[in-house]
Write a structure and sequence with these properties.
mainly alpha, Arc Repressor Mutant, subunit A
Length: 123
């Protein structure tokens, strides 16, 4: 069972809330490596990759690093990419190399997120 790392901001100590496996998988997905290739790389089932991603996304949502709406309104691949980007943006995983196609996907996700936020604020 993975140890849940803690955040002790009052003491000036902030530990990464993601397990090492969650960080590795998020980085791979963010870098454009498929779920199947990621599973093969770590010698685990594709379903296990999805479980790690779901757990990581839930932690990111719980800690306010990622909006919950994206978990339900985007595809699994889209919400996983957004989770990886959020984790990288907050220094939870290393920076993700981005090519032009990835940049377009990222811009789409950001626009989609802004649209979702606008809809939520209007209701």
């Amino acid at each position: 069972m993975a140890r849940m790392e803690c955040d002790h901001r009052e003491q000036g100590i902030v530990e990464n809330p993601l397990t090492s496996r969650q960080r590795e998988i998020l980085w791979n997905i963010g870098a454009g490596i498929s779920f199947l290739q990621t599973a093969q790389k770590f010698g685990i089932a594709e379903k296990t990759v999805n479980v790690h991603l779901t757990d990581a996304k839930n932690r990111l949502v719980d800690l306010g690093f990622m909006p919950k709406t994206l978990m339900f309104t985007c595809s699994i691949a889209g919400s996983s990419l957004f989770a990886a980007l959020s984790a990288a943006e907050h220094g939870l995983i290393p920076a993700i190399p981005v090519d032009e196609q990835r940049r377009e996907e990222i811009e789409f996700l950001k626009r989609y997120h802004r649209y979702e936020e606008r809809l939520a604020s209007e209701s």
